[in-house]
Amino acid sequence: MFRALASVLLCCFFLEASFWVHFSYGDLTTCSGIVPMTERGDKISITDFGGVGDGQTLNTIAFRKAIYRIQHLRRRGGTLLFVPSGVYLTDSFNLTSHMTLYLARGAVMKATQDTSNWPLIAPLPSYGRGRERPGGRYMSFIHGDGLEDVVITGENGTIDGQGDIWWNMWRQRTLQFTRPSLVEFVNSRGIVISNVIFRNSPFWNIHPVYCSDVVIRYVTILAPPDSPNTDGIDPDSSSNVCIEDSFISTGDDLVAVKSGWDEYGIAYGRPSSYITVRRVTGSTPFAGVAVGSETSGGVENVWCSHQD
């Protein structure tokens, strides 16, 4: 009874027109040409910076050192950060522009469950406060703000938010601030996320907000059906977003198009527009593809097809 077709909730909302130039391969329509997958000339490994994939060593410093190196050396064409097979425990960290985070087969990046040191950031201006609690919010596990040309991809490696500790805090009403998303990009463009498994997000899984030119494809997103607010993909006040060829099974909407909350979203005034969702399958106790519930900034030109 909990299975939902990904087209369930959008039947009254989507428009028949779409911004996208559709690239066709035989009978298959794809968004693959919209944001090119950049071939990085420079490649480094997290092990070069002391990363240890034993599931116990905390690798936060290794990831931050590697990304600092990418940011400050600025190699022509950007840099690929390779994460080999193993389990890499780490705190939250920021990405930088012109980089690829590449997870090899068997690579698992796990979020620490020590919430006491989790970074806090300001609320989004289109929300005015944390989504769950007044004040700030916890930063996403993997975060990017003001970036361009960023790729998260690999050989179906896993990003695991270990969200059960956060779900329990929500159930017990002990949260001080809004839970972190698993991956969030803010004010960014030219983002590609593909061929990665996302598990057990504390809150929303993939949240591009105030972004443009975003492609999310060939991803698997998994969370228990009773995990609270674990939306799969939430384009929020973003434009030119393509979501396709993915499997999502979570405790909330598979895809939810958003644009801010109440008077804050109205004042910020940035709609979500030109959103394509196709060939997304999965299961959920809620909506397959939803518009909202946060839509104060407006939603326009959403195109949805071939859900199953």
Overview of this protein structure:
The protein is mainly beta. The chain has one domain: Single-stranded right-handed beta-helix, Pectin lyase-like (Pectate Lyase C-like, 3 Solenoid), CATH 2.160.20. The protein is built from three helices and 25 strands. The strands form five sheets. The chain has a 15-stranded parallel beta sheet that branches. Strand 1 and strand 2 form a beta hairpin. The longest helix has 14 residues. It is globular, with a radius of gyration of 18 Å. The N terminus is likely disordered.
CATH class: Mainly Beta
The CATH topology corresponds to Pectate Lyase C-like
The tally of beta strands, per DSSP, is 25
Question: Quick one: biggest sheet?
Answer: 15 strands, parallel
Task: Write a brief caption for the model.
This protein is mainly beta and 308 residues long. 9% of the residues lie in helices and 39% in strands.
Topology, please?
Blueprint (H helix, E strand, L loop, with lengths): L22 E3 L2 E3 L11 E4 L8 E5 L1 H14 L5 E5 L2 E5 L2 E2 L4 E5 L3 E5 L8 E2 L15 E2 L3 E4 L2 E7 L2 E4 L3 H8 L11 E4 L2 E6 L1 E4 L6 E4 L2 E6 L2 E3 L16 E11 L5 E3 L4 H7 L3 E12 L5 E3 L7 E7 L3
Parallel strand pairs: 3-5, 4-6, 5-8, 6-9, 7-12, 8-13, 9-14, 12-15, 13-16, 14-17, 15-18, 16-19, 17-20, 19-21, 20-21, 21-23, 22-24, 23-25
Antiparallel strand pairs: 1-2, 10-11
